[in-house]
Design a protein that fits this description.
The chain is built from four helices and four strands. The chain has a four-stranded antiparallel sheet.
């Protein structure tokens, strides 16, 4: 029985190490940079590029893509009207499980309103995109 517990413990330790190695620091910096880039596009009014960072953007019809761009533009205008310009975006953390991640951002507006946003991301090939 003791030998069985040792093997189980050994297997658990190895599995944990494999999971940690699969999620390298490089993935953390890449997913954070990708999320930051999305919000930079939003901040700069580059709504087409923002929508282009959605994982399934390549399969959107032209009409649907145009609607998505319009929705993002409307959202940005509503937020600007409520809080003023988007001033800063700061990454506060991330969680990566396999090829999915959540990046947490602190978004601050001109009126000093600050919100924490969780941005779901997915790894497509070697690129992290919004889910």
């Amino acid at each position: 029985m003791t030998q069985h517990r040792f093997k189980l413990l050994h297997f658990t330790v190895i599995a944990s190490l494999v999971m940690m190695m699969a999620c390298s620091g490089d993935d953390h910096s890449r997913v954070r940079r990708a999320a930051e880039q999305c919000y930079e596009y939003l901040q700069d009014g580059q709504y087409e590029k923002f929508v282009g960072q959605i994982a399934y953007a390549d399969s959107m019809s032209d009409n649907y893509r145009a609607q998505m761009v319009d929705l993002v533009k409307e959202f940005a205008a509503a937020e600007q009207q409520r809080h003023g310009e988007l001033q800063t975006v700061r990454i506060t953390g991330d969680t990566i499980i396999g090829e999915q991640a959540h990046v947490y951002l602190q978004v601050t507006y001109a009126d000093s309103t600050s919100e924490e946003v969780g941005l779901p991301m997915v790894k497509v090939g070697k690129k992290w995109l919004m889910q």
